[in-house]
């Protein structure tokens, strides 16, 4: 079984993922695969963005690349066209391996829909939280400014919109309270699976 786990920035996807029992679930963090995808696609990234995005040791400097792509939708699209196919292929490979090992694979991805994971999922879990709650988390946890969070949120405005028309079972977890509240919802989810 493959479960898709998604939600907007600071909604609590990673919190939900961390609460899933490790003896039953294998969580595949697509964001983490994104970091690996950068290193696996050096040649294409160099062609697309030049040498300035690389550190002297040859690794991609995400602090330089981030502002470039998040300030220009066409450059973000270019980066996504390079990294997303690699990330999707690797995540699905890991999911199949988890299934073969008798575990439930959980693909944790903010961009679950736009990356095309939904058709491969048996179920989807959508984690939601009000904008103000997510913004407060971003400012506190990530040291992000309100303006930067707004820009990130604008890029993610479509997350969750197509899930309910996808034909997949969708479970919504509301993360607007304390950890006990979300823990109860995750326990209920696990009992149903």
Task: Give structural notes.
By secondary structure, this protein is of the alpha/beta class. It has a single domain (2-192), classed as Rossmann fold (3-Layer(aba) Sandwich). The protein contains 8 helices and 5 strands. It has helices spanning 13-19, 30-40, 42-49, 62-70, 73-100, 131-141, 146-155, 179-192, and strands spanning 2-7, 25-29, 104-108, 123-128, 169-174. It has a 5-stranded parallel beta sheet with strand order 2-3-1-4-5, sandwiched between helices. Helix 2 packs across helix 5 (73-100). The longest helix has 28 residues, at 73-100. The chain is globular, with a radius of gyration of 17 Å. The model has no long low-confidence stretch (mean pLDDT 93).
């Amino acid at each position: 079984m493959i479960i898709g786990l998604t939600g907007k920035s600071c909604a609590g996807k990673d919190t939900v993922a961390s609460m899933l029992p490790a003896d039953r679930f294998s969580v595949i963090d697509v964001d983490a695969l994104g970091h690996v995808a950068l290193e696996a696609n050096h040649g294409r990234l160099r062609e697309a963005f030049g040498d300035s995005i690389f550190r002297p040791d040859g690794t991609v400097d995400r602090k330089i690349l981030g502002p470039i792509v998040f300030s220009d939708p066409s450059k973000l699209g270019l980066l996504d066209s390079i990294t997303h196919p690699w990330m999707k292929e690797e995540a699905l490979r890991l999911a199949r391996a988890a299934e073969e090992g008798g575990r439930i694979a959980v693909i944790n991805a903010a961009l679950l829909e736009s990356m095309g994971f939904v058709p491969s999922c048996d179920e989807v879990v959508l984690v939601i939280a009000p904008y103000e709650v997510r913004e407060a988390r971003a400012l506190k946890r990530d040291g992000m400014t309100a303006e930067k969070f707004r820009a990130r949120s604008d890029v993610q405005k479509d997350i969750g919109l197509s899930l309910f028309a996808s034909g997949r079972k969708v479970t919504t977890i509301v993360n607007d309270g304390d950890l006990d509240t979300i823990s109860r919802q995750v326990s209920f989810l696990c009992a149903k699976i």
